[in-house]
Design brief:
By secondary structure, the protein is an all-alpha fold. Among the domains are: 2-70 and 360-401, no CATH class; 156-292, no CATH class. Helices cover 87% and strands 0% of the residues. The chain has helices at residues 2-22, 27-54, 67-70, 72-86, 90-97, 102-111, 116-135, 138-155, 158-172, 176-192, 194-204, 207-212, 214-235, 240-258, 260-275, 277-299, 304-322, 324-359, 362-401.
């Protein structure tokens, strides 16, 4: 556009010279010369005006030229003031967002399965999760997570919690399946190790008993008695030995809650477990496997992670679109947040804009503003050339009439 405007001005100059050099006596020559002459004046005047905004015309130090570079700081302050007064005051923000249904718009977007944006959100969220997990140092992150868990465990006294859980389990009868499972396990262990029990009894029997063979009968009697005892404990719900075990568990629960010595032993065992290097190595391996599975799930669109994200986004969109109460709460929160951010950070944003523009050099400011509006500025030059020529014709016509 700059070349076109300059070419039009040069064309008027060439036409003026040609007309003056080869013009005849016909009246139309006068109108043509008047048009080209006035067009040159209009084009030159508008070229000077447009150029004076951004630089010195022909490099000459003419007063009131290079207006934008000279007044760069004042322009920056004016832009910041305009931004603050028209966009970044709490009153303006509150007025503009009043009546806007943020939650409904978001809900309609998320719940519409035909929108491609939902899949882009899902893919973006999954890729973001994978990128974050891959960018972090696995060993350092694992150590940080482990240290965080260790700090939380150190703050929690687990003995009272264990005691309360055990008391609640006994009160609800949830301990009985565990006791029965322990009894069955004891029976299976005894059956698998009968020969070891027989050998122990024979080794401790008197030599006379071994000579008479009574040691084997005693071993069989002991084993039969143990099997019978275990079977009775399973069959009889109110077996005395079961009641004894329940009482022992209740006593343990009471000591975990109220006995300082028991609580200290549990805390000491907890600290030793936390400080054990084997536990740290185990957690590191667990964390690395979990991290790799999360990365693979996030990278693969066919995994459950993608489907779960889609389902969750759809459910969230449906709730936002159909629940007026939820919409009201979220919209109120969004308006308060926007107004609060404006009140708290509006001046900082304005200052950032002003300081950024002030830090630009004069050439940068001129180039950016001229690049934004330069096409229209060149139209001013073109219009000035043409309109100037028309006014020249009008002036020439008035001169001929007078």
């Amino acid at each position: 556009m700059r070349l076109f405007a300059t070419g039009l001005l040069l064309a008027m100059a060439v036409a003026f010279i040609v007309l003056r050099r080869f013009g005849g006596e016909h009246p139309t020559w006068g109108y043509a010369i008047a048009f080209t002459e006035a067009a040159m004046v209009g084009g030159l005047a508008d070229w000077f005006a447009v150029t004076a905004l951004f630089r010195r015309p022909l490099g000459l130090p003419i007063p009131h030229t290079a207006i934008i570079p000279v007044n760069k700081n004042r322009i920056a302050d004016s832009m910041a003031t305009f931004l603050r007064d028209n966009f970044l005051t709490p009153q303006v923000v509150a007025r503009r967002v009043t009546g806007f249904n943020f939650a409904g718009a978001a809900g309609g977007f998320l719940s519409d399965p035909g929108r491609g944006g939902q899949s882009r959100i899902r893919a973006g969220a999954a890729n973001l999760v994978a990128d974050v997990l891959e960018s972090l140092d696995p060993e350092r992150l694992g150590n940080q997570v482990r240290a965080g868990l260790a700090r939380q465990l150190e703050r929690v006294e687990i003995a009272p919690l264990l005691g309360q859980m055990l008391s609640a389990a006994i009160a609800d009868g949830r301990h009985r399946p565990l006791i029965e499972g322990a009894i069955r396990w004891a029976g299976e262990a005894l059956e698998s190790n009968e020969e070891i029990v027989r050998s122990m009894i024979r080794e401790r029997a008197h030599s006379l008993l071994r000579l008479t063979g009574l040691d084997s009968r005693i071993a069989n009697s002991v084993l039969d008695g143990l099997y019978k005892l275990l079977a009775e404990m399973i069959v009889q719900p109110d077996h005395p030995l079961k009641a004894k075990v329940e009482q022992m568990l209740q006593d343990l629960a009471d000591r975990l809650v109220s006995d300082p010595e028991t609580r200290e032993r549990i805390e000491s065992a907890k600290r030793e477990m936390i400080a054990n290097p084997a536990v740290g190595q185990w957690w590191q391996s667990v964390w690395e496997r979990l991290r790799r599975k999360l990365i693979d799930a996030a990278r693969s669109p066919a995994t459950a992670l993608g489907g779960q994200l889609t389902t969750m986004l759809g459910e969230l969109g449906g709730a936002l679109r159909e629940d007026p109460r939820l919409q009201s709460q979220i919209n109120r929160f969004a308006r308060r947040t926007l107004v609060g951010v404006t009140a708290r950070y509006g001046d900082e944003i304005v200052r950032l804009v002003s300081e950024t523009v002030k830090r630009w050099d004069a050439r940068t400011v001129s180039d950016r503003i001229e690049g934004a509006v330069g096409r229209d500025l060149q139209f001013i030059r073109i219009n000035g050339t043409l309109v100037g020529g028309l006014f020249g014709v009008c002036i020439h016509a008035v001169d001929q009439l007078l």
